[in-house]
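tool=predict chain=A
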Amino acid sequence: MQLPQALEPWSEWLGWFAPELLPGFADLLGRINSVLGPLRGRQQNGVPEPDGLGDLQRRGPYERLLSSEWLLAEEVPDEFLRRAAGGEHLFVAPQYRAHQANALIVVLFDAGPLQLGASRLVHVALLILLARRAREAGAQFRWGILQATPRLYELDSVAQIKRLLDQRVFACVSAAHWQAWREWLGQQELAAGECWAVGQRLPIDANDPLCSHRVQVQRDLDGSALSFEVLGSGRARLQLPMPDNAAAMGLLRGEFDSVQAAPVRHDEAAPRVALTLPPVISSAGNYVALALLGQPGAVVIKLPTEQQKKKIEIRRHLWAAGRSPLSMAFLSRTFGAVLSDEQQLVFWKMSGLVNVPRPGIEQLKIPPGTASLLPTAWLRSRDAGRLYLLDTQGHLAFWTMRVYPLRADQELGKTHFLADRVLGMAKVEHETLVYVRNERGQLQAHTAGVNGGGLDRFVVGAAEGVSQVLIAAGFAWRHGFGACALLTVNKGSESWRLLTPASYPAPHEQSSLAPGWRGLGLVRKDESCSMLLMGPDQQTFALYFEGRQEVLFSTSHPVVKSSFCPISGLLAVLTGARELLVYSVRQRKMRLQLFCNLAPEKDAAHA
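tool=predict ok
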């Protein structure tokens, strides 16, 4: 989003807001920024310290007279006196060390009843302004709530702004609240160069050395404007217009981005699902499946259309007890699963596949119980079909489907092994998958289809240090190299090496993510690729493209499991509150928002 030049200083944070919300909010930023005053520094001695010699000046004490001038007094006294009378002597001016603020700015907000409504928008504006102030000073920035147990937060994502707006208490700020913060801040290793307290009727003494700035925010008597007053080294006051009601309500509800959110269906719910297994998305982008909690089976949800009025189609599928799901997959609208018991692998509702004896652990590493779902690609054409599965040790196995008319080369009821040392695989179109394996220290991308492995192989880089691979979907793999990204981790931070059709065999870009951000998938568009990311708070999702990061949406609770389908471009996330959100990355639209917490005895209607 292109911002006006006047708003460019805050573009990093304003990019989190939808364009229609910016005009009124940007006006707040400009007005408040004009009265914040200069950065306040703190020196231990209270006065600037000399730091060597500076410039030459025409005025000064004679103890700092230039030495060449004293030589002139000895050799040519009359000239010395003439220069003194004319003010032509040169003096050395000392260089002083500049005042520097401590490398931390803290702002504490009043979240009580006196700061409800429009005052909270002023809090958000001040949060952004002070974050920018800290950035310019090379300082850290933290914020907290005065009425809460002392704890400071960063401002690293839009989820933190939502956290601020979610903080509401019924008590005003008391002297005990401020004393608790005083004691806690005094125990921290890094002292705050500036500490801002924001609210109304704050019980903070004007001479308190810990609080450098007090901000009073309150409504005027007639309710037509907000009074904003800053008390720091000086006093500044201004009147702020009341924001537009519609935009203000959206901001206060945390509706910052332009995502067309699917409404929460309060009258509908899916059966309670397990939080240990990720959602499974159909390649066509119309179904999502999740494993049930406490029952041997899964729930399949049909994604509603944009104008759909009728209830969401929710179906529960149960299999025999004692069998654990190794993987779940869709073939068009058909849902199936690979189940395991002590004797065999069962291809449940996968027409054309014959159950096989369970392979030994040295052949196929199967996780115990339901610890995870293994990557699977279910491929089918008119005259052939295969199911591919990648185990936890890099073994890529497959099984052949019965397709009529029967061919002599169809080996049904047998486990086949295509490759080992496989780092990752993905279904890239309906009849093709791509896998990347380590071959003598080099990573090579291979294609495979319904009739077997293809002859094409593409060297994508050295295997040393690479721990994960992301593969982009698309028809480009039919006739050449598609796109993939290779992950290396350095001191806990992810670094991705992206290869595209235009750049291959050279990398298109090496992207180092900020600490805590994780890559989830590649989104292909024409000849370029964007990377889908999840933030360190496990709530924020963004799209990264050539050094720029666009926030897509954030969740109300931390995400425990997520899945991305590169073919459909859908992202499905499951939060700790068992809320399922399905988001279309390509359309920038929320397709589904549904709670999956219906108790078993109440969900018989969905069976």
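Residues 42-47, 602-607 have pLDDT under 50 and may be disordered. The two ends are 46 Å apart (CA to CA).
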